[in-house]
Specification:
4-stranded mixed β-sheet; 6 strands; single chain; 284 residues; alpha/beta; 8 helices; two-stranded antiparallel ribbon
Length: 284
């Protein structure tokens, strides 16, 4: 992926060097329970314990050594986030006639807090709807490559794009509607609804990848394969198998590897938001 020397985003909140004091966050109660959307990616665990249904939290981050790899990751995230801002601003205007309001992306290392609860290396990247913020530990890219076998710049870009896609869903009112529905559902039905949310975010990520190539010419040979591999490595069935567990479809919250790849490809091929309606799909 061609990203060096390009514009970075001003919507980065860097907490990696903070220590000591904390600042109260203005979270909104209730909707924080929509999802901690990507928290179980590489451990395959239920992350509901990280959700603070009461709303507010503290924005403190532990002090940690910032390595050259962390700095490179931060620069990469900033450029990728800037790309998403331009892409989604254009798509919202052309396809919806609306103005896109970008999210804040919080970089941290070690641990921090959000209105959706605690964040650490164990939770993975996630989007917090009431704050309109995405959270990312810069160590995650190392985990993505070394532990999940999903290396490459574009695999990392897919992670960022997926979190931003959840913000797009929030902007469109989708997450609020999903939260209301899930509150009335059984656990199995709630999980199934979560799968539809995640697969739509994968589809939106594909739309972003297509537009990024058209607007910036940033994709290189092998980049799409990197994203498809990342989507495969974080499928619920693959995560459960790799954790030595039996595959239990009723517990899926993100979709199978095949589903995640297919919906990403769908967005990539179409570039059209209307093709990503996973909620109306009879086959996921």
């Amino acid at each position: 992926m061609k990203w060096q020397g390009r514009r970075g985003s001003s919507n980065i909140e860097d907490r990696r060097r903070r220590g000591g004091g904390a600042r109260r966050a203005g979270g909104i109660g209730g909707v924080a329970g929509v999802l901690v959307l990507l928290a179980g990616w590489y451990f395959g665990v239920d992350t509901s314990q990280f959700v603070d249904l009461g709303g507010g939290g503290f924005e403190a981050s532990s002090s940690a050594e910032i390595t050259p790899a962390d700095e490179r990751a931060a620069q990469f995230v900033s450029v990728t986030l800037a790309d998403t801002e331009e892409v989604w601003s254009d798509i919202f205007q052309r396809q919806l006639g609306q103005t896109y309001q970008p999210p804040i992306l919080v970089l941290f290392k070690g641990q921090t807090q959000s209105a959706c609860g605690g964040a650490s290396a164990a939770t993975g990247p996630f989007y917090c709807p009431p704050e309109r913020k995405a959270y990312l530990d810069t160590d995650f890219f190392t985990t993505l490559e070394q532990r999940l076998g999903a290396g490459g710049d574009f695999a990392a870009a897919y992670v960022v794009a997926h979190e931003v896609a959840h913000h797009v869903q929030n902007e469109l009112g989708i997450l609020g509607q999903v939260n209301q529905l899930r509150a009335q559902m059984s656990e199995a039905d709630s999980n199934a609804m979560s799968v539809r949310v995640e697969l739509q975010a994968d589809c939106f990520s594909g739309i972003w990848a297509r537009a990024a190539q058209q607007q910036f010419g940033s994709l290189e040979r092998g980049d799409i394969a990197e994203a498809m591999n990342a989507a495969a490595q974080i499928g619920d069935d693959t995560l459960q198998r790799n954790a030595g567990q039996a595959v239990r479809p009723h517990t899926f919250t993100h979709g199978t590897s095949e589903q995640r790849q297919r919906w990403f490809a769908r967005g990539l091929e179409s570039g059209d938001l209307s093709t990503c309606d996973t909620f109306a799909a009879t086959r996921l």
